[in-house]
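User: Predict the full complex structure for these chains.
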Amino acid sequence: MSDQPDNLITINLNGKDVQVEPGLNIIEAASRFGIEVPHYCYHPHLSVPGNCRMCLVEMGMPGKDRATGEPMLNDDGSPKIMWVPKPVIACATKIAPGMHVSTESDVVQKCREGVMEFLLVNHPLDCPICDQAGECRLQEFATDYGRGHSRFVERKNVKPKRTRIGPRVMLDDERCILCSRCIRFCNEFIGKPILGFTERGSYSTLTTFPGKELDDNYSLNTVDICPVGALTSTDFRFKMRVWFLKETDSIDTESSVGCNTIVGSREGKIHRITPRRNDEVNDTWMPDSGRMLYKQVEADDRLTAYSIAGKPCSGEEAVKAAAELLLQGQGKVAVVGSGRLSVEEQFLLRKISEVLQSAPTYAVARYGEADGKLISADRNPNVRGALLTGMIGNLPEEQLEDLRKKLESGEVTHLLAVGEDLAEAGIPAELLKQAQVVYIGTRHCDTCQHSKIELPLLTVFEKSGTFVNQQFRLQKFNQAVPGPAGTLFGLSTFTKLYAALTGESPYAPSPAAIWTHMAEEIAEFSGLRYQDIPKTGKVLDGSRFDKLPFREGASLHFTPAAETANA
Amino acid sequence: MATKVVERKPLSIWERSYLPQIVGGLKITFKNMFKPTVTLEYPEERPEIPPGYRGVPTLVRDPNGREKCVSCQLCEFVCPPKAIRITPGEIPEESESRHVEKGPQEFEINMLRCIYCGLCQEVCPEEAIWLQDIYSFTGYSREEMVNDKQKLYELGGTLPDPYYKWDRKKQAELEGNPHH
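Assistant: Here is the predicted structure of the two-chain assembly.
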C-alpha cells in the first residue's frame, strides 16, 4: 500500500490494530473497515450535535502511571487499557493514537437496544404508507436492535401530520426522531434558519419559524438526509416504493457544476433523482431544480419520431436523407452543436462538420444567475467538453449573430442543428424557412417547423457518456431508461450519419469505442479509457483554455482559475 | 436367452361358467349402492371449502366499508410470478379515510400468472388481501382474467377486523394526547 499517506495512526478496533488517517471521528474511522456504527443525527457534511445517542461505543486509552508517566502494563506485559466507564458517542469522539474502540461489546449492544426502544416509543406504525420505508434508518436499526414488541402501554403522542412546510416538502411530525439534521442543513448549507423545534421533551415538534417556508432551491436535500420519513418529497410522494427503483449513476445537466446524481427508475419510467455523494463536486447535495429534469423524458413536446418533410419514416431513412441533403450543400453547411451533448457526441459532431467542410461549428450559450453553491452561471453542462473535443474553438455566444449574417448573405444554405432551437438563438423564422435544416433534438420547437428532416435525440437519461464540468472534471453518466420506441440506440444517430456522409464507418456507436479514437486524437484524453473513468470523475488538464473568459464564479468546491468575465 | 415354459392349468367347469366372477362383481356393485356417496354433482353441487383454503386472491373492506389496502406494494414485491400490479395514489382531502393518506388507484391481479401461493396474503401488513374460497376462475379472454380493483373488491367483500388500527388512529388524531 504505497499510496497511503505516511501520517497514519494506529487504533485498536474491536481487538484488531488498524491504521487510519488522523482527524476522523470513530464513525468514519470504523466505516473505513466495513464496520457500521449506527447513527441518526451525524452527517458527514454537517456539524456534530450528538443528540441521537445511537452511536454509543466503548472507548479506552492505554493507561499511564500518573506519578512516573510510565505506561501501565498487565501481568502479561501488554499495555493496560483504561476503558472509559461509560460509553461515548462515536460521532463526536476523534480517534487518537493507541485508542481502543469496541463497537460490538454487550454494553454497546444494550445501549443501542435502549436508544431504539425510546425512539420507537412514540413512532407511529406508518411503515405501510411511509415513503421512507425501505431506505429508513429507523426501520433498519429496528430490525437490528429493536425488541420486536412494545412495552409501552400509554398512548402515543399525537403530533401534526401531513403538514406542507414548503412547495416541495411535506412534514409528518409523528415520524420525526428529532435528529435535527434538517435544521442544521438549513442553518449551515442554505444559510437561513428556517426550521426549528418547539415544545420540550417528547412533545418536541419540528416546525418552520412563523411566517417562513422551506422554499429554498435546496429544500429537497432535507428529505434525503432525513433518516426517517418525517420529511418527504411532494413530487415523489406515494409514487413508487423505493425497493422497486433501479438506481443508475447520472449527472445533473442544469449547469456546469455537474452534480452527481442517482436516477431511480422502474420499468423504463423515471420516478426520482437524488444526489450521489462526491466530496469533490457536490458533497451529498443537489438543487431541487435538477431533480425535476427527468420530466423532460416524457414531456409533451418531446420529439419521438423521425420524419422527412413532415412525413414519418424510419431512423435509417432519416439519417440517409439527412446525409444526402447535407452533402448537397457541402461547403455551405453550418453545424450548430450544443453544450448539452455528451463529449462523445460532440466529438462525432466535430468529425461530421469536418466532412461537411463547415467551420466553425456553433454552439449556443446559456447563462443564468449563479447561486454560489451548486448552480453555476453557465447553464450548459458540457461547454468544456465541446472545447476539449474541438467541436468549438471559443466560448459560445447566446445569440448566433454570425450565423444569421451568413444565412442572410447566402454563405450558408444548409443547417445541421443538434440539440438547439435556432429560433431561440436569434435566427429569424424566414431565414430558417429559406435554409435546408436538419434538426436533431429532444423536443419539438420552432426550428422543427422549418426543418426538412427531424431526428429525435436521446436525453441524458437514455444514453451513456461523459460530461466535463466547470472544474474540467470528466464525469460519466449511465443510461437509466431506454429511449423512445423506435429511436436509434446510443450514439448510432451520429455514427450512422458519419457513415452515410463518408461511406466509411470507423466508429462503433458506444462511448467506449469512441473513447479509443478520442484518446488518440485529443491530448487531454490521451491514455484514458472510458471504462477507467472513476465514479467520482477525473480532473483533466484545462490549461489550454486558461485564457477563455469562463463565466462561472466561485461555488462549492470550485474557485475559478481566471478572473470571471463579469467581475 | 433361456426360455421358461409356464405350465397353464386348464380351467375347471365351475370356473368356465363365469358365475363366481359375476357374483363377485355384483357384490361390489350392491355394496356401493347402499354406501353413502363421496362424489358431488358438480357444478350443481359445490364442495364445502375448508378454512385456510387458498383460492383466488381478493381485496377486502373492513366492517365500516373502508378499503383496507394502503398500496404499500409489498404483495407486488413478494409475488413470485409477478401477477400483481399496483398504482399507488393519495387519498383525496375530502375522503372519509383521508387519515390513511395512501390507497391504491389501480390494483390488478393477473389470474393467468397467479400461482395461488398465498404469499401476498402472508406479507400484507394491513390484512387487506385474502385468498378466499373461489377455486374455479375462468374466462374467455386474457383481459377477462386480469382482475382490476373493482372486481377484486366485489370478490373480496367484507371481513371482520380485530384491530381497527386506522379508526383508532383517527380517534387519537381527533382527541389527541393533550399535554397542555
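The beta strands of chain B are 57-59, 84-90, 102-110, 129-131, 146-147.
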